[in-house]
């Protein structure tokens, strides 16, 4: 069976590698000039176990189930020697300290109450240390690139999706994240759903020594998170409000002209558009020493979620059959890439077993 996978992010690349290992003829296609060029390389680099989503039971369970599979698949890309903390804001949190600990107990998520020296105790009602790991984006890229190079996967970069691809493959897997609908349209297929596209900025900072190897998330509202950026010595910061420069719901992301030269370019030094000062001002309520942060640069990419999920902040993983020949992958959490590939493999094996395109 010939399989074409469109999108060489972590989901597409993982699927390509595992399907090729299972004996299938696989081509991995991407319009960019390198793998993992967009959101796979620009995120918060946290291997979630569920603590971050206390209002979405589905997302908690999904994160909890998938983290171990990712660790086993990419052990060299998992950083285990950082310490990870979650704090509940003393005000304006959608989840109380009691609700958070009950959630952890219900899902058997490990935690223990422990003060964190970089956090202002007066402004949080709970601070817990959790068993969670980080992802090293450099190691993840190197691991996947080396595996692709040694595999039977044919990597086709600088290649856009087009309708003629349907005649080349028995199955097409679309793993293009924010570009999913653009790929479907290029294949002459009507998009299945609308998405919410958020043009996000992740600021990269150098922090004082007391932040080293510490990850901290403030829940559950318009707050910030701070994580080591792999093993670089720098940190990446996110913010529920200030990270988002623009947002639209529709079939495609709307890219303002002023962001086109910044989008998916890695760390942009001295960016002409940045919310750095807003990040720092907001974070200083919880992290007093954050005012000593040095702005190394910023990264810009589209985060893509299902629309109208504000009540739960749900981040589902969806493997969807568009038609007899095309399957789409949608997920917002890198840690889900291995389990998602397992679902694709099941569909492929079912298709072979029944020998009918409609069987998938």
From TrEMBL:
It comes from the Bacteria. SUPFAM superfamilies: FAD/NAD(P)-binding domain (SSF51905). InterPro entries: FAD-dep_OxRdtase, FAD/NAD-bd_sf. Pfam families: DAO. Residues 3-304 form the FAD dependent oxidoreductase domain. Gene3D superfamilies: D-Amino Acid Oxidase, subunit A, domain 2, FAD/NAD(P)-binding domain. This is FAD dependent oxidoreductase domain-containing protein.
């Amino acid at each position: 069976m010939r399989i074409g996978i469109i999108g060489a992010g972590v989901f597409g690349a993982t699927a390509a590698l595992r399907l090729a290992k299972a004996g299938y003829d696989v081509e991995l296609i991407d319009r960019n000039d390198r793998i993992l060029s967009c959101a796979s390389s620009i995120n918060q680099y946290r291997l979630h176990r569920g603590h971050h989503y206390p209002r979405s039971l589905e997302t908690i369970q999904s994160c909890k189930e998938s983290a171990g599979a990712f660790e086993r698949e990419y052990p060299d890309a998992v950083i285990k020697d950082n310490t990870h903390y979650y704090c509940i804001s003393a005000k304006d949190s959608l989840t109380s300290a009691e609700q958070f600990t009950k959630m952890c107990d219900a899902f058997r998520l490990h935690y223990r109450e422990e003060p964190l020296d970089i956090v202002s105790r007066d402004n949080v009602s709970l601070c817990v240390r959790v068993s969670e790991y980080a992802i090293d984006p450099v190691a993840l890229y190197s691991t996947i690139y080396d595996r692709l190079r040694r595999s039977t996967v044919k990597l086709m970069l600088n290649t856009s999706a087009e309708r003629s691809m349907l005649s080349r493959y028995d199955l097409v897997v679309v793993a293009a994240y924010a570009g999913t609908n653009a790929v479907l349209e290029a294949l002459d297929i009507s998009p299945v759903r609308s998405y919410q596209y958020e043009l996000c900025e992740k600021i990269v900072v150098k922090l004082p020594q007391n932040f080293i190897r510490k990850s901290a998330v403030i829940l559950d509202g318009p707050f910030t998170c701070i994580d080591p950026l792999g093993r670089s010595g720098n940190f990446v910061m996110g913010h529920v409000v200030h990270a988002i420069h623009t947002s639209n719901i529709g079939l495609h992301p709307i890219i303002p002209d002023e962001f086109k030269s910044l989008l998916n370019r890695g760390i942009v030094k001295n960016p002409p558009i940045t919310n750095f000062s807003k990040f720092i001002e907001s974070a200083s309520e919880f992290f007093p020493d954050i005012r000593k942060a040095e702005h190394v640069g910023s990264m810009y990419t589209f985060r893509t979620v299902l629309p109208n999920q504000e009540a739960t902040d749900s981040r589902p993983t969806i493997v969807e059959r568009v038609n007899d020949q095309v399957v789409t992958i949608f997920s917002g959490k890198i840690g889900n890439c291995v389990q998602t590939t397992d679902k694709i493999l099941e569909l492929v094996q079912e298709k072979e077993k029944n020998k009918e395109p409609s069987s998938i």
